[in-house]
Design brief:
five-stranded mixed sheet, UPF0102_YraN-like, 5 strands, single chain, nucleic acid binding, 2 helices
Length: 116
C-alpha cells in the first residue's frame, strides 16, 4: 500500500521527535501502537516512567500551532489507547503524556501534559 505525502511528512515528524527524545536520554519502548479507538505515536521510557508521546507537526504557528491541534476528541483517543496499552502490565507503572510539537521545523517538548 503506497503512502500519501501527508503520511510521509507525519513519519518524518515522528522520526525527528524520536531522535530528539533519544538524545534526551529516553528509550523507545514501542512505536505506533494502535488499538480500536486510538493510537499512540511513541511509547518511551524515562527512567521508571512510561511516557506516551503524541507528535504534532505544522508548517507554521498559525491557528495556534501544533500543540493546539490536539482536540478534546483526540485527547480522549490518546487516553483510551494508553489505558488499553497499560492492560498488559500486572501493576501500572508511573506514566505520563508528553507532546512533541513541531512548528515550522522547530521542536518543542511539552512534558507531563494534563488532558482535560
Amino acid at each position: 500500500m503506497s503512502r500519501t505525502a501527508q503520511q510521509d511528512k507525519g513519519q518524518q515528524g515522528e522520526d525527528a521527535a524520536l531522535a530528539h527524545l533519544l538524545r534526551q536520554g529516553l528509550a523507545l519502548v514501542e512505536r505506533n501502537f494502535r488499538c480500536q479507538g486510538g493510537e499512540l505515536d511513541l511509547i518511551m521510557r524515562d527512567g521508571a516512567c512510561l511516557v506516551f508521546v503524541e507528535v504534532r507537526r505544522r508548517q507554521s504557528r498559525g491557528f495556534g500551532g501544533a500543540a493546539a491541534s490536539i482536540t478534546p476528541a483526540k485527547q480522549r483517543r490518546l487516553v483510551h489507547a494508553a489505558e488499553t496499552y497499560l492492560l498488559r502490565y500486572p501493576r501500572v507503572p508511573p506514566c505520563r503524556f508528553d507532546v512533541i510539537a513541531i512548528d515550522a521545523g522547530r521542536i518543542e517538548w511539552l512534558r507531563d501534559v494534563q488532558f482535560s
